[in-house]
Structure formats: structure tokens, C-alpha cells
């Protein structure tokens, strides 16, 4: 890790005007790619964080999709 570079960048950013910081944030945001819904779905399936839901009872019927009323 180049610690000196990181410290230097922080110092430079601190001296930027508000307008320059805003421009920097916009340029950085343009470079960020967000995962698609399909990619997130794949991660969830692979990760298994929601596997416990397979053991939960269904509260909707296939025929009507309406919730079962609990009394």
C-alpha cells in the first residue's frame, strides 16, 4: 500500500474548493458500476444468507396469491 500517496491525496482534496470537490465526487461516481439485479440475485443464492426461508411455511396460495388470515 502506498501510504504516502494516500496521505498526499487526502491533503490535496482538503484544499479543494466546494465546487472542485463536487466535480471530483461526480467524476468518481461516474466510474462506479453498480451490480445488476441479476448479479445481486446470484450473490444471494450463492451466499445462502436466505436459505432459511426454504423451511418457512408458505403463507400464500398458488391459486390466488392472497395471504392466509391468521386468527
Keywords:
3 helices, 71 residues, mainly alpha, 52% helix
Characterise this structure.
With 71 residues, this protein is mainly α. It contains three helices and no strands. The radius of gyration is 24 Å and the shape is elongated.
Task: Please give a quick description of this structure.
Helix content is 52%, strand content 0%.
Q: Give the C-alpha Rg.
A: 24 Å
Low-pLDDT residue intervals, each spanning 5 or more residues:
none
Q: Quick one: overall form?
A: elongated
> What is the arithmetic mean of pLDDT?
85
- The helix/strand series, from N terminus to C terminus, equals HHH
Total DSSP E strands: 0
Write the layout of secondary structure elements.
Blueprint: H1 3-14, H2 18-31, H3 37-47
Amino acid at each position: 500500500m502506498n501510504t504516502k500517496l494516500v496521505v498526499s491525496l487526502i491533503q490535496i482534496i482538503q484544499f479543494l474548493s466546494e465546487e472542485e470537490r463536487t466535480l471530483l465526487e461526480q467524476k468518481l461516481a461516474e466510474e462506479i458500476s453498480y451490480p445488476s439485479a441479476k448479479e445481486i440475485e446470484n450473490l444471494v443464492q450463492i451466499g445462502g444468507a436466505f436459505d432459511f426461508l426454504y423451511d418457512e411455511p408458505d403463507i400464500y396460495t398458488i391459486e390466488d396469491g392472497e395471504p392466509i388470515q391468521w386468527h
